[in-house]
């Protein structure tokens, strides 16, 4: 399956500050694709100069892994560590 990430950055008032899409290429599963979307959102936010980011998404497993302090040895562990 091929995937494309869509990222919208809004400020604290809800105004759009930037938007982009990233082709993710072939991904093995939806969890990996969602983790890559979060990584691209973090990179895009950093490139735009933002220091505080709130990432929203619906992949609960990825969100739990991002919030966890333990070392992630899963398939998406490397992506989680980059974020």
Automatic annotation (TrEMBL):
Lineage of source species: Eukaryota, Viridiplantae, Streptophyta, Embryophyta, Tracheophyta
One Pfam entry name: RVT_3
Domain spans labelled RNase H type-1: 3-83
Stated name of the protein: RNase H type-1 domain-containing protein
Highest taxon listed in the record's lineage: Eukaryota
PANTHER family (UniProt xref): BNAC02G40300D PROTEIN, RNASE H TYPE-1 DOMAIN-CONTAINING PROTEIN
N-terminal signal peptide: none
Species assigned in the record: Gossypium schwendimanii
One Gene Ontology term of the molecular function aspect: RNA-DNA hybrid ribonuclease activity
